[in-house]
User: What shape does this take?
Amino acid sequence: EVQVLESGGGLVQPGGSLRLSCTVSGVTFSDYAMSWVRQAPGKGLEWVSGISGSGKDTFDADSVKGRFTVSRDNSKNTLYLQMSSLRAEDTAVYYCAKLTAAIIFITPLDSWGQGTLVTVSS
Amino acid sequence: IVLTQSPGTLSLSPGERATVSCRASPVICPTCFAWYQQRPGQAPRLLIYDTSARATGIPDRFSGSGSGRDFTLTISRLEPEDFAVYYCQQYGTSPITFGQGTRLETK
Assistant: This one.
């Protein structure tokens, strides 16, 4: 059974930085692309970033481009999201999700973690 | 790619049929559409992928269809646990996008 577990959320001041982590078990991690998806309080889902299984290819939403960096360590079965220059509008639950193949697109998100809350406030 | 879901809220009773629509503009990958269910306080769950394929463990009362720009999620007979929020998603190109969600509530 696939298990996805996020960590690293918390309260951060505007302009600050935070790194989220996501550990995946039950599968060969490097066989699958991964994505981060966020959900602001009471709002819908917004895709944030994606990374291929090898880690060579990454894509980001325009709203976070230049501020957030997605990466992975396949030896540790762990996905990361380095967030900097945080804004109030980045406040959200951040979900880590596994795709069904090693490429970022043309595959859905089939396993999700429970999410970690990031609050940007002074 | 902008995904427009309708209706925003759907009020039905257990046993009834639910239909949620999603219109895409433009369409890059005609089969790269999925539907997710999100219950309160829970993470989204994949229901349907590749427009009409059911994900593992999803009951057969859930079905997906679509062609061109229009995609549909149908729940044939609503069970109490089906009252939740539903999102469509396209995953054919960057950025991956979601519809705004449809809340299915008990009438």
In short: The two ends of chain A are 40 Å apart (CA to CA). The longest strand of chain A covers residues 18-25. Chain A has no helices and eleven strands. Chain A has a mean pLDDT of 97.
